């Protein structure tokens, strides 16, 4: 039995270590970008335009991942772009989680008219196409970091509300909830001390997944020039620029694309791993 459990937990542990390691490395790189970035991400030198990575012929010392068409260092721009991506992921993901999970928990536990109002509002809100809605909000609010965060929160809180509502309804039908109410505990106290701890693994999984989605949304908005200033380094902006010169300088597209993919995948796997590790049913 112990061997079987070890086999089940081993991929979970590996998933947590790999995803957590990548995100930790990325966070450290973003924090210490001014110290470890080899060049100014905004510095241009047309004489150094489209230098290849260090392992190809024709490169220059100090430009590990090459340069773009304006001679800007690709590695430095990726490091500084990680700052914006992680800020959007943490702030937008946390706010979305707080709003959506709170409404979903209240609707799923109290039910009745409260559930009907919140559920109908969620249904109406989810009728809007999310990407087009985000672009519309950015067009109204204007490009900028705060506008991006507001757009993500306004759009994605419904995902938390629907999932947590279903989890809260399922937990609310359990015997331990009835026992807490018989013991004289208030509804609000039961929700906080009995329901919330059992839906917390789902909330954590959704939170990390939402952080990955926030990174994607920011990259999409940067790709269409609706993020922050076009001069600021963003992964989406680098991908948009690399797309136009992929045959002449493939590295401008490939390296930020790989970084974006690994970051989103790590957020997703981290959430699934944490849910499997701390879910009381699986334990």
TrEMBL record:
<keyword id="KW-0472">Membrane</keyword>
<dbReference type="InterPro" id="IPR035906">
    <property type="entry name" value="MetI-like_sf"/>
</dbReference>
<feature type="domain" description="ABC transmembrane type-1">
    <location>
        <begin position="82"/>
        <end position="271"/>
    </location>
</feature>
<dbReference type="GO" id="GO:0005886">
    <property type="term" value="C:plasma membrane"/>
</dbReference>
<feature type="transmembrane region" description="Helical">
    <location>
        <begin position="131"/>
        <end position="155"/>
    </location>
</feature>
<dbReference type="GO" id="GO:0055085">
    <property type="term" value="P:transmembrane transport"/>
</dbReference>
<dbReference type="Pfam" id="PF12911">
    <property type="entry name" value="OppC_N"/>
</dbReference>
<keyword id="KW-0812">Transmembrane</keyword>
<comment type="similarity">
    <text>Belongs to the binding-protein-dependent transport system permease family.</text>
</comment>
<keyword id="KW-1133">Transmembrane helix</keyword>
<keyword id="KW-0813">Transport</keyword>
<feature type="transmembrane region" description="Helical">
    <location>
        <begin position="203"/>
        <end position="228"/>
    </location>
</feature>
<dbReference type="InterPro" id="IPR050366">
    <property type="entry name" value="BP-dependent_transpt_permease"/>
</dbReference>
<protein>
    <submittedName>
        <fullName>ABC transporter permease</fullName>
    </submittedName>
</protein>
<dbReference type="InterPro" id="IPR025966">
    <property type="entry name" value="OppC_N"/>
</dbReference>
<keyword id="KW-0571">Peptide transport</keyword>
<feature type="transmembrane region" description="Helical">
    <location>
        <begin position="84"/>
        <end position="110"/>
    </location>
</feature>
<feature type="transmembrane region" description="Helical">
    <location>
        <begin position="249"/>
        <end position="270"/>
    </location>
</feature>
<dbReference type="GO" id="GO:0015833">
    <property type="term" value="P:peptide transport"/>
</dbReference>
<keyword id="KW-1003">Cell membrane</keyword>
<keyword id="KW-0653">Protein transport</keyword>
<dbReference type="Pfam" id="PF00528">
    <property type="entry name" value="BPD_transp_1"/>
</dbReference>
<dbReference type="GO" id="GO:0015031">
    <property type="term" value="P:protein transport"/>
</dbReference>
<dbReference type="InterPro" id="IPR000515">
    <property type="entry name" value="MetI-like"/>
</dbReference>
<feature type="transmembrane region" description="Helical">
    <location>
        <begin position="12"/>
        <end position="37"/>
    </location>
</feature>
């Amino acid at each position: 039995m112990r061997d079987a459990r070890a086999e089940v937990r081993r991929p979970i542990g590996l998933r947590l270590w790999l995803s957590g390691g990548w995100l930790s490395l990325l966070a450290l790189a973003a924090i210490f970008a001014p110290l470890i970035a080899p060049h100014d991400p905004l510095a241009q030198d047309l004489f150094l335009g489209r230098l290849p990575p260090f392992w190809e012929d024709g490169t220059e010392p100090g430009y590990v991942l090459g340069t773009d068409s304006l001679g800007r260092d690709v590695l430095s721009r990726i490091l500084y772009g990680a700052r914006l991506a992680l800020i959007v992921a943490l702030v937008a993901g946390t706010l979305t989680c707080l709003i959506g999970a709170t409404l979903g928990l209240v609707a799923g536990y109290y039910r009745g008219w409260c559930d009907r109002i919140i559920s109908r509002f969620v249904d109406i809100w989810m009728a809007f196409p999310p990407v087009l809605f985000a672009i519309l909000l950015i067009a109204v609010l204007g490009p900028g970091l705060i506008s991006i965060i507001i757009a993500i929160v306004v759009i994605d809180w419904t995902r938390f509300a629907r999932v947590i509502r279903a989890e809260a309804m399922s937990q609310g039908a359990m015997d331990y909830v009835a026992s807490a109410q018989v013991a004289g505990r208030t509804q609000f106290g039961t929700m906080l001390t009995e329901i919330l701890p059992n839906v917390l693994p789902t909330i954590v999984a959704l939170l990390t997944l939402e952080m990955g989605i926030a990174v994607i949304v920011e990259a999409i908005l940067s790709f269409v020039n609706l993020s922050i200033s076009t001069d600021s380094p963003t992964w989406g902006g680098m991908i948009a620029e690399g797309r136009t010169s992929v045959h002449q300088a493939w590295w401008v597209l490939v390296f930020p694309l790989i970084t974006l993919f690994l970051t989103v995948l790590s957020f997703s796997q981290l959430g699934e791993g944490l849910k499997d590790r701390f879910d009381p049913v699986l334990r």
